[in-house]
Amino acid sequence: MTETAATFKAKSTIKSADLEHRQKINFNIGRYNAVVPQGKHQFSDVHLARERAKNVKWKAIETLDQQLEQFEMNFIKNGGKLIWASTAQEALDEILNICKEKNCRTIVKSKSMVTEEIHLNSFLEKNNIESVETDLGEYIQQLDGEAPYHIVTPAMHKSKEDVAKLFAEKLGTDPKLTPEELTLVAREKLREKYVQAEIGITGANFIISDTGSIAVTENEGNARLSSAFPKTHIVIVGIEKIIPSITDLGLFWPLLATYGTGQKITVYNTIISGPKQTNETDGPEEMYVILLDNGRTNILSNPKQRESLYCIRCGACLNACPVYKNIGGHAYGATYSGPIGSVITPHLQGLDEFKHLSYASSLCGNCTEVCAVKINLHELLLENRNEAVESGAVSFGEKFAWKMWKRASLSRNMMNMGNGKMKNWMVNKIFKGWQKNRSELYFSEKTFNEMWKDRYKK
């Protein structure tokens, strides 16, 4: 077992027994579940909308090279500067070069999972550049020194009391502040940073090929402030976020809002096509888009797994997953948690190290059922397991155990051999791996085949 897998099991064991944690998660996901059906009412046929979105993403991913080149051409026409980054380190180096060129000491950053993926904040801190999270949930997590817990709601595992206590410890506020008062405190602190920062960094929910634009959807307006106030705006985005046309947003924005937070549409929806133009009074003087690969072409080259690149990061599969609801987001030990994280992380960070995540599933199929773009997530998890076996990323003991189980299962005589006690001993004592994380297996004294024969002897 790898160290990563051992850590995952240890964290999962602790979290699954933490009833307070489970109560907080169930409360927050319960609120989500209550509003999503209301958001779906805006679609005359929500299944058709999802199917159409999947088809748009299919076209975008199947022609990814052409779409990205078209985006590059149009974005540069708009006055922007485009950077291709094959790895996380290349992206970090490019950002540092821009920071040095601009004599940057402070950065304001809106919520972005890609910046978490490349560990941007810690990199900037090592280079004596202050990076401030401006999304409230991300700001809370940054104050607490934690990574985001969820793709959409980074501080989902914290109650209002937890946040009040954290603000009291870190910012010296009254520990009895209400959520509204806590929000005002964060607003006051962050507004100062927007005007101080030399550079603003955002992600992008979508990159639009035919106009050379990026699209950002949010509820707080912090991405707009991060991109508009500083003189330089840097966008870091995965290459899979491409959509062919600006008209596709009429489908994707409502889907993302409904499946992400249960809204019909999020509060702030912004399309940015480049830096400030000569006839404009505000906006950044320079705009960079960094298109990040960082393992995504590994998924693109895999015909079966390619479908996972359709993901629009709505987080619906996390909220639906019984495993995620019990072990939480941090147990996964990866940037992307839940079902989608379990599918893509082994391909982004290595099958040997992260194949165990594909087994962190009951295969109930609920993730596939709720996916906004109908990705067959539970089938892709099975495919990951198969690829791990085919590539030899399994131990001799594991292969031997399953070989014996298969042989016994295919033999009626072997299945009927012995009584229930002998079978219990074999499974629970000989194959100890099962019982480490599960309760004991109990076999009946007789198999169904034996009971049938006893009943109908004549």
Protein architecture, described:
- The chain is of the alpha/beta class and 458 residues long.
- It has three domains: 42-294, Rossmann fold (3-Layer(aba) Sandwich); 304-390, no CATH class; 402-455, no CATH class.
- It has 24 helices and ten strands.
- It has helices at 3-16, 19-40, 46-62, 64-77, 88-101, 113-117, 120-126, 136-144, 160-171, 179-196, 222-228, 249-261, 296-300, 316-320, 322-327, 338-349, 351-354, 366-370, 377-390, 396-409, 412-416, 420-430, 432-436, 448-455, and strands at 81-85, 106-109, 130-133, 199-202, 206-208, 213-218, 232-238, 242-243, 268-272, 286-292.
- A six-stranded parallel β-sheet has the order 1-10-7-4-2-3, sandwiched between helices. Strands 8-5-6-9 form a four-stranded mixed β-sheet, sandwiched between helices.
- A hairpin with a 4-residue loop joins strand 5 and strand 6.
- Helix 2 (19-40) runs antiparallel to helix 12 and helix 16 (338-349) runs parallel beside helix 19 (377-390).
- It is globular and about 95 Å long.
- The model has no long low-confidence stretch (mean pLDDT 93).
